[in-house]
Design the sequence.
């Protein structure tokens, strides 16, 4: 499971049995971004391949709004080419 927080001291994870789960916190640089159009196109290709390689039962499930948001955001960045 991956998650993000600005202030980890306010983060609390509870499992299904009501027990607190201590997360392993790994910091990623915020400044890291995909800078070139080619890098964004490669990321889009990787997303397509990841969906293509899903098990059949997962492929027939509808995407979430987050999935749609991520794909549309990436397409927007490729088209705009900032």
Sequence:
């Amino acid at each position: 499971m991956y998650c993000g927080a600005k202030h980890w001291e306010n983060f609390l994870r509870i499992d299904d049995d009501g027990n607190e789960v201590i997360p392993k916190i790994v910091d990623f640089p915020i400044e890291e971004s995909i800078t070139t159009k080619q890098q964004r196109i490669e990321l889009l290709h990787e997303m397509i391949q990841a969906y293509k390689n899903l098990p059949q039962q997962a492929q027939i499930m509808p995407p979430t709004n987050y999935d749609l948001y991520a794909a549309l955001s990436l397409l927007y960045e490729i088209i705009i080419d900032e």
